[in-house]
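Input sequence (87 aa), recorded before submission:
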Amino acid sequence: MDYTIHLGDFIDRDFKSFDSVTPIWKGLKSEKYHVLGNHDFSIVDSLKPLVFEKMDIEDRYYSIIRNKWRFIVLDGNDLSVHGALTL
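Predicted structure, token format:
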């Protein structure tokens, strides 16, 4: 694979889940991109700022061009009541 795009909900309500799925994700030899999902923030508020570090995400919104396709990544959690605190 040239690239992999994860389409949200990397975890499901348990911050510790990052520790089990991240090694699998990092083991991929392709370029990797995340889209933030609502379940990624279904954790206690104090841990929400750590989601970006755990998922190795620098920006909530970005675009990439791969194989003549433009992917525009948006964070639908940005204005939610459960979404992450500001980056």
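Checked by second reader. The longest strand covers residues 62-66.
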